[in-house]
Design a protein that fits this description.
alpha+beta; binds ligand EPZ; UDP-n-acetylglucosamine1-carboxyvinyl-transferase, Chain; 4-stranded mixed β-sheet; globular; single chain; 17 helices; 2 domains; about 475 residues
């Protein structure tokens, strides 16, 4: 009997992260020119933290431009477990946090989404207590949370870590966190977001110095301000939050996904195609646009929320170093490396944000790329061509980068590990197909056959 579609916490049919997704593959035939326009979805890294931020409010909120992603479904599951009522309509989510019935996030759901940890700040500030399993590490690094914990302690919280769970509470008869001056040793996006959210309901003023300046942090700040929070310095490295007793409902649209937009820009560059994208916020892509121009492409701002990529005759070798915003984003590192594998020279790519975010190198090498890794630095010697091959995605951005490499390679690439891709990209293959790419998602026996077949590549066929 046909399995009924899995309906998720948002009342949505589950996006492809059913068990089959782990066996499905993307089959990509490379070197097809792309053309046309692609619509960019809402930012995953805004959606997740803004959804958590709804816990700060005791009235219903409406969030717009929320992408349909596995990670969004997982965050919705965490919030539902805490008592939030959630309903997805067309392109918005209605969330009613008025009756928080639990303050412990369930391990089985938290363990599948690191970003679940974002609920600790709002839950503690609103309810006075929060018990959240430690998010643990992932493919790209250990992902510690000591900056979050130390900041909450500075605001008067009692935080203990026992048996893999963070137990946080506001001690004594106080019912609110206390404003504090906090300096972050590192401009951590998550720590900035946790502490900013917690501070919105604290008693007094909190200053967060050396705060992260990523656009998603500013988006969260603007969402909190839309609920009545008092936050100054949005978009700078010093945030000043004056606590208020409560926050009110709002209807808020999140920003477009700058990482998805950057990924599509590179799809154009690697296939030597002119494509346009919207909606985008061009200044969110400053470093990416600058580096793509250095690499020989032109990026034209066609209107305040629309850009186009015009490829150069050659892909110029270009060095990058990932840095906190406004530096080159670590979430675009793997995708840019895909482009550099086909450049006309040698590029040096240094990953300074995460300690283990070069695992895609081995997969690129299977496609004929020439890359040497020393520590957190990769030296890429451009090659005239990549050859399609069976490859395995290791993490979210690596999976997108392998799709880009497949688009630029001769012949067929079969990518498995789609559970990584579906976490962060909404309908990637449909959007690429609309641009003219030859890319198909195969499941079950078709996936097995594609992965094992030794079909001749179109190039071999054409000789
Ligand atoms: C956010 O992760 C994003 N995730 C990441 O995107 C992104 O790569 C990262 O920011 C950097 O921009 C979401 O927003 C859901 P960090 P986050 O805290 O908050 C260290 C993607 O692909 N650190 O800025 O976890 C940490 O180990 C994902 O969409 C501490 O040492 O990033 C890392 O080396 C991947 N102690 C560095 O800071 C702490 O307490 C940056 O981490 C916190 C962080």
């Amino acid at each position: 009997m046909e399995d009924k579609p899995i309906v998720t916490a948002t009342g949505n049919q589950q996006v492809s992260n059913s068990p089959e997704a782990d066996n499905s593959v993307l089959e990509i035939w490379g070197r097809h020119p792309l053309t046309g326009h692609v619509t960019v979805s809402g930012a995953k890294n805004s959606a997740l933290v803004v959804m958590a931020g709804v816990l700060l409010c005791s009235q219903p909120c409406r969030l717009r431009n929320i992408p349909n992603l596995v990670d969004v479904e997982r965050m919705a599951a965490v919030l539902t477990a805490l008592g939030v009522k959630i309903k997805r309509e067309a392109d918005f989510l209605d969330l009613d946090p008025s009756d928080i019935s639990h303050t412990r996030a369930p391990y089985d759901i938290v363990s599948r989404l690191r970003a679940s940890f974002f609920v600790i700040g709002p839950l503690l500030a609103r309810m006075g207590v929060a018990r959240i399993p430690l998010p643990g590490g992932c493919a790209i690094g250990a992902r510690p949370v000591e900056l979050h914990v130390r900041g909450l302690q500075a605001m008067g919280a009692d935080v203990q870590i026992e048996h893999g769970t963070v137990h946080a509470c506001i001690p004594g008869i106080r019912k609110r966190l206390q404003g504090a001056n906090i300096y972050l040793d590192y401009p951590s996006v998550g720590a900035t977001e946790t502490l900013m959210m917690a501070a919105t309901l604290a008693e007094g003023e909190t200053v967060i110095d050396n705060a992260a300046q990523e656009p998603e942090v500013a988006d969260l700040a603007n969402f909190c301000r839309a609920m009545g929070a008092r936050i100054r310095g949005v978009g700078t490295k010093t945030l000043t939050i004056s606590g208020v007793p409560s926050l009110h409902s709002t209807d808020y649209a999140i920003v477009p996904d700058r990482v998805e937009a950057g990924t599509f820009l590179i799809a154009g560059a690697i296939t030597h195609s002119k494509i346009s994208l919207s909606p985008v916020v061009p200044e969110h892509l400053g470093a990416v646009i600058a580096k793509l121009q250095e690499a020989g492409s032109q990026v034209v701002v066609e209107s305040p929320n629309r850009i186009a990529l015009i490829p150069g005759a050659e892909i110029q070798a270009t060095d990058i170093q990932t840095l906190p915003y406004p530096g080159f984003p670590t979430d675009m590192q793997a995708q840019f490396m895909a482009l550099m594998t086909l450049s006309n020279g040698n590029s040096m790519l240094t990953e300074t944000v995460f300690e283990n975010r070069l695992r895609h190198v081995a997969e690129f090498s299977r496609m004929g790329a020439n890359i040497r890794v020393t520590g957190n630095c990769a030296v890429i010697q451009g090659v005239p061509m990549l050859s399609g091959a069976p490859v395995m995605a290791t993490d979210l951005r690596a999976s997108a980068a392998l799709v880009l490499a497949g688009l630029g390679a001769h012949g067929k690439t079969v990518m498995s590990g789609l559970q990584h891709l579906d976490r962060g990209y909404e309908q990637l293959e449909q959007k690429l197909t609309k641009l003219g790419a030859r890319i198909t998602r195969l499941e079950g026996s078709a996936a097995q056959a594609a992965a094992e077949s030794e079909e001749l590549t179109p190039t071999e066929l054409s000789v």
